[in-house]
Amino acid sequence: MKYILVTGGVISGVGKGVISSSFGAILKCCGIEVTMIKIDPYINLDAGTFSPYEHGEVYVLDDGGEVDLDLGNYERFLNVTLHKENNITTGKIYQSVILKERHGDYLGKTVQVVPHITDAIQEWVERVAQKPVSESGRIPEVCIIELGGIVGDIESMAFVEAFRQFQFRVKRENFCVAHVSLVPQPRTTGESKTKPTQSSVRELRGLGLSPDIIVCRSERPIEDNVKAKISNFCHVAPQQIISVPDLNSVYEVPVFMENHGMAEYLSGRLDLGLTPLPPFRKYMTDWIGLGDRIRHLKYDVTVAIVGKYTRLEDSYTSITKALHHAGNKIGYKVNIKFIEASNLENTMLTDDPASYHTSWRELCLSDCVVVPGGFGKRGVEGKIEAVKWCRMNEKPFLGICLGFQAAVIEFARSKLGLEGANSTEVNEETKYPLVIDMPEHNQGNMGGTMRLGKRTTVFKSSAKYCKMRKLYGNKDKIEERHRHRYEVNPEYIEELEKHGMKFVGVDVEEKRMEILELEDHPYFVAVQYHPEYLSRPVIPSPPFMGLILAAKDRLKGYLARGCKLSPREPQSDYYDSEEEAVAWTVNNLTIKGETDDSSAYSSSSQL
Fold first, then answer.
1. Is 532 a catalytic residue?
2. Model's pTM, two decimal places?
3. Which is catalytic among the residues 29, 143, 401, 466?
4. Which CATH architecture has domain 297-560?
């Protein structure tokens, strides 16, 4: 097993997740089986009880693990299925050690950070690295480990010490360190400042880990003289310092990094046996094509996301990614407008009329609307108002989780005349409880008690011609990931369907409502599950595809053709020849002045 440890410096959120994912994508394109581990130094057992304002969205895995959003990046870049154990937290490590101590596994010894905690970290990594994560079922050959936070954080000291020991445990030829650091470029001077990176690397080396690669993040590419300075002070060769400036899309990063010979360097450093490398066109063609398509989108579509946590856009990372995946596939640049749900409520007309009118204006000007999930009472009435506006004005609408429940509540109020209908989460005393809790998933504890993970949804036989079934390829059943504690009250299903709301998909085991549609609407769809978690850059989620197509009045034609895009749309094969692909990449993804021919993609690369 080979290991790549990715650490960060200067600030958190510098892009370690995308850099780590890009390492994995490059190696996977070369035919190497890759798995990934994210280490979060916080004491929580998992991310399940976090407010989205703390760390962004909570990402859900097939096995029900509630994990850091970086695991979503890993799955999207590598098209793998990770497990809850691929996310390590301080809480998980300490819990495992304490349970062993209670069981008597340490034979009366004093349990300490070193060696017991550090040993537990190393054993966890070695064990999880052996678990298959791809459809092939093959054991991974390379494990990429991202250490959250930055070097020097008190919370991560035990993990740094564990990997200091780990490099000797697995031997140097099997262990590589990549350090991702910010290089500030103040606008007042325009200079690239290297001192923060120097300090960060000095601290990392002082803790016993020497970086093999330094990835410098900056707004603009850094110059060779800046690389030389970092090399001189950080004990890393200039060729092993990579400048990754801000790019148009995160999906350009793998191609950009491979332009610097990353596959060849990792092959030599970790003895992966990739020399000679296959022609660049053959193993990076999908990434080149995706990046090119994103850059050449000709049309725009505006999507309003009516949410409760819009102050932090990372709260809806998977939804925004899923929208972009669908837009890229169809040929539309997706412009997202985040609308705070509570601003749409009637009380805001007197409390804050400016926010009220601005939010409603943005909603009205959008091409389509997404009402995502959430928890608690705040903003629910605003979501219901947005749903009502979409229904009455035939605006394409996609509701997810709480958005699904809001659609049911709004329909019951408007069409069934059940004034005051609500969810028991919002109003326990409501006369018409359209949405109720699931007793087996509401046991008092908040963490890990929801209906979580991948579950099977079956389309009803009466829904043979519904939009959602067609979008999913006319399958009888589908599998999607869930995260909720409330469901539609079965007592109201029959009455809702009599008035036109069709529940076309139900859970295969529990018969809970999963998918609803309105027949007389261009696209009024809501789902109890979270389709965004399984969306991939080249395989968009069907509900999001339907939403974008409906927003541009192209859904009927798409469904009529058996869910195929018009032949007039750009195809997935973007280049007529390998030479054209290489020429474009050298011209567009090479730092100016570093190379002037296609040799950047030959075996004699810069690294």
1. yes
2. 0.89
3. 401
4. 3-Layer(aba) Sandwich (3.40)
